[in-house]
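User: tokens in, sequence out, please.
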């Protein structure tokens, strides 16, 4: 007796089998995505944890804080990465928060009424800036602008959080007062330089300082940038550098000042 093949029945069985396989594939894909998502979360948690640990090593009085204050800082702390030339803080009306440099270089400067810039201090790895949170110090009205001189990674502590901790923690209050005294000392030193030191001495000192920071005598810097640091005009700096070149102290090329004779520059700045 011939066996009759039921085509509809076979088709239904095939569809059921395919559906079952598709469901299995969906589960595998879903679980893979879930595992990937969890892995990403774990990786981010590890990264955040490492970042917190690094901050703890950078913050000068971390070990003198109680656990409540430590928690307040870590829960509100943010990390910023800024490119060279970025304005990080823009004057007294801007309350950015306290800045702690993780890596890179910042420049704090003030503007004259004529729009001329003059650098008051620079910030390097592990340096903290208070004037970016001047809103928490009502008695201090400093129109300081802070710019990234290099690509910089930094931490930002909200001003209101730091102010609360400073009012409750003697170690933080003492550290803040010491840091403030240091910054005002920098400003007073700058005023003395401007008032009593001739521009040629200041330019010589600046070039030597820049060479020390960059660890090279070939400085990639424009005359305009030097003028901004020293509160002068580009044309004046250009004339001064040409004089230095005529005395074989430096060599000038486009966007570069190369120091040829450090001893002559040192003698000039100390004269």
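Assistant: Sequence out:
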């Amino acid at each position: 007796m011939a066996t009759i093949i039921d085509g509809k029945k076979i088709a239904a069985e095939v569809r059921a089998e395919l559906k079952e396989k598709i469901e299995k594939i969906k589960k595998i894909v879903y679980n893979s995505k879930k595992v990937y998502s969890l892995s990403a979360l774990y990786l981010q948690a590890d990264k955040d944890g490492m970042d917190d640990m690094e901050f703890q090593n950078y913050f000068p009085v971390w070990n003198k804080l109680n656990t409540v204050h430590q928690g307040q800082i870590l829960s509100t702390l943010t990390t910023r990465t800024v490119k060279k030339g970025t304005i990080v803080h823009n004057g007294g009306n801007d309350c950015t928060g306290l800045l702690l440099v993780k890596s890179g270089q910042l420049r704090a400067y003030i503007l004259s009424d004529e729009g001329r810039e003059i650098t008051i201090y620079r910030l390097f790895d592990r340096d903290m800036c208070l004037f970016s949170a001047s809103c928490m110090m009502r008695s201090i009205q400093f129109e300081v602008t802070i710019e990234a001189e290099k690509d910089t990674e930094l931490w930002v502590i909200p001003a209101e959080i730091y102010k609360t901790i400073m009012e409750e923690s003697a170690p933080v209050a003492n550290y803040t007062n010491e840091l403030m005294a240091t910054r005002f000392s920098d400003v007073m030193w700058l005023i003395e330089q401007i008032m009593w030191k001739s521009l040629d001495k200041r330019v010589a000192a600046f070039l030597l300082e820049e060479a020390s920071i960059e660890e090279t005598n070939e400085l990639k810097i424009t005359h305009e940038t030097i003028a901004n640091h020293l509160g002068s005009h580009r044309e004046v700096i250009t004339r001064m550098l040409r004089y230095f070149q005529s005395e074989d102290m430096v060599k000038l090329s486009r966007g570069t000042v190369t120091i040829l004779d450090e001893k002559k520059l040192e003698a000039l700045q100390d004269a």
